[in-house]
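Example 330.
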Amino acid sequence: MTDAKRGRVFSGARPTGRQHLGNYLGAIQNYVALQDEYECVYCIVDLHALTTVDTTENLRTNTYEMALDWLAAGIRPVESIIFIQSHVPQVAELHLILSMVTPLGKLTDLPTFKEKARMQPHNINYGLVGYPVLMAADILLYKASAVPVGIDQEPHIEFARELVRSFNYRFNTDVLVEPQMKATEFPKVLGIDGQQKMSKSLNNHIELAATPQETTERVMQMVTDPARIRRSDPGNPDVCNVYSMHKIFSPQEDVEMVNVECRRAGIGCVDCKRLLARHLNAHLEPFRARRAEIARDPNTVWYVLEDGKQRAQAIASQTIAEVTEAVGLL
Ligand code: SF4
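Predicted structure in complex with iron/sulfur cluster:
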């Protein structure tokens, strides 16, 4: 780790393929910024994905597309480690060792487990229960000092911290390090339905890699202030997701104009969305250009992931050696 950096950050994301604005605002943007302050380890958590996916058919494509989006968005692979979770098998070893200091009741009490069990009652597998232990193993294997996550993941970070204390106490060691949570600035981005969190599975998303025309089409489908029925009705931008997006992607003078003109029916929703689409496309243009440039040679992404694997394994091997010695395994 370089002395100039404040510590090591770890974060993982499931291989969900092409990323959308919600991923970008909620995680990727933060990933990029953190590189200036921290040594960053970013993991594509394919093992975690197995707890909920029915098929691994698209795993390779989804991994490639997601890594490509990360690189195009500004994650710098020379500084940061980008790798695939299953490429570092030491995480499974740490997961198993940590499971021995994990009370089962704690896992089944976690709200995230209850929610997952409710969503897929036909498939409450062991991996689903042990998910927070594997997540803790991910973080602890790399001795991350900080973990950038949404507020909904807070119980998991607290759980990882408790595991560290239990493990270190039980084996009279200090090899594991308690991570701190770093809340993201945009924990929730609504989809084009204006109701639910942006998500591919809900088909309410806008892909970063979409063409300008596709992006405009998605923006034009956005739900606005539901009380504004006719063009002549005054609107309320405070309840409109289009306005929320303007605040992120449009210049200040247009944000102010929309805020004023919407309230007195001076601007219609169609024009307001067209304006947003223009600013959003301008914002995404450098991303799209970088993406096309990187994608020209598909080996680039796989090379980055292979290099990340080597660097991640080097850290993981060291931690596992310390852990097994602390535990007293021969
Ligand atoms: S004018 Fe814009 S901010 Fe106002 S309701 Fe329509 S889309 Fe939303």
